[in-house]
């Protein structure tokens, strides 16, 4: 059974050190996603319908809302320890304004890249500190994350030369019919997704709605709904005292065991373990019925010009 060694959660997003021994279902994240092997066996992620190797020399890069899954090819294979970064684009934008483009579906051109010794060293240092249970002050953690993320972004994104700022958050789609469907999904997290009803509300046929939704969001309505439920669950587990039973019922699961299975299929660990190992940096004041607004507000307030000049003075101007 996969486990979580340590998780940090805050306005930057999440950082998790995971000990994996089983595959995950296809899913997505609203954040910019970077995966690095910390130790253990080499492994794979499926991104863009191809297996991408994760080993000492590579990183797997997943764009915001890009479908992917972890693949543990042999159930008898040794475990893999993975450093997983889920970084909010607006938090990155506080370091350098144009980095809000990290929410763009084309931000990382390649899903698997060969990393430098410098990136390997930064990843190893962060993973070792997490493994050893070292305490991070908020400033220390922000600097470690910023140094690692900027090293990856500078090496593997064309953000300095290509203007991607037009799509700060891909889920703010241009088509009003799909926006309405997303609002309905968000307002009814506890209801089983009904594509026919969503299509009817959008005044589209089921087939046309399904194609248009994928074109606007890069994922199917079911995957999008699962992302909303997972992010709601993650915030609830870290930021509230709600029982697992209460969270499960609010998200529409008929039994807590079904919620646990759903959570494990997407993240690899049980929700009870997530709550035990997560370290929360700054309390997140979240209206769980308005998730996207909450993500934006808590991201915008974190990084100010002082942090920007402290970490990356050469990027100013």
Descriptive terms for the model:
317 residues, alpha+beta, Jelly Rolls, three-stranded antiparallel sheet, 12 helices, 10 strands, 42% helix, globular, disordered C terminus
**Beta strand count:** 10
CATH class of the largest domain: Mainly Beta
The level of helicity is: 40-55%
Report the sheet-strand fraction.
15-25%
The tally of domains stands at 2
- Summarize the biggest pleated sheet: 7 strands, mixed
| Overall pLDDT | 87
Question: Please, could you describe this protein's structure?
Answer:
The chain has 317 residues and is an alpha+beta fold. The protein has 2 domains: 3-168 and 299-315, Sandwich (Jelly Rolls), CATH 2.60.120.10; 176-275, Homeodomain-like (Arc Repressor Mutant, subunit A, Orthogonal Bundle). 42% of the residues lie in helices and 18% in strands. Helix 2 packs antiparallel against helix 3 and helix 5 packs across helix 6 (206-217). The N and C termini lie far apart (48 Å).
Describe the structure concisely for a colleague.
This protein is an alpha+beta fold. The protein has 12 helices and 10 strands. The strands form 2 sheets. A 7-stranded mixed beta sheet has the order 9-6-3-8-2-1-10. It has a 3-stranded antiparallel beta sheet with strand order 5-4-7, with no helix packed on it.
